[in-house]
Specification:
The chain is an all-alpha fold and about 210 residues long. It contains four helices and no strands.
Amino acid sequence: MSSNITIKLRLIVTMTVLGLLIAILGGLSITALKSANNTLNEVYSNQLVSTQAIGESQIFLGRSRFTMDRAMVHPDAADVKEIVTRAEQFIESSNKSWKVYLALSQSPEEKILSDDMDKKRNDYINNGVLVMGKALSEGKIEQADSLMMKGLTPLYRALDAAAEKLTQFQATSAASMYAASQAKYDTQVGMAIGGLVIGLLLIVISSI
């Protein structure tokens, strides 16, 4: 009787431990899937979208500058005002892309960089490109030429440097998220392997 009870107890303990291991491994699997899904969601819904929005904003500003330079080649042309209007439309498109980025969630560190870029971006647009376009539309060619040669370049350099810092921060953040996700994955795989080994040892011991 005592022997039977001992065998039953051993079986109960073994099956209980195996059941717990199965539950733990299942929980680890669910946690790993959620963690991977959250990382992918963050990269897709925030990092990727924000990088794309910043890139589009910069591209449209570049097109605006190119259009203004085109107007400067023939400032006396009859369609110079239409060319300036087209450049201003590119600025509007750039503003739309920039607003898309600003609407996304930002960490405190990213907010500092985005505020800096926003300030330099507004400075470049309002005190550079638009002033140059206004001068061209009013036929003030010398003022427009002086602004193009001396004023726009430092403003754009400041904007470009701010954009580079922000883009680099996003790339670094994405890399950090990937590294953290990989570390979690390695830990969870190690725990799963450990659980399997313990389960197999219990089965062997129970069989013996």
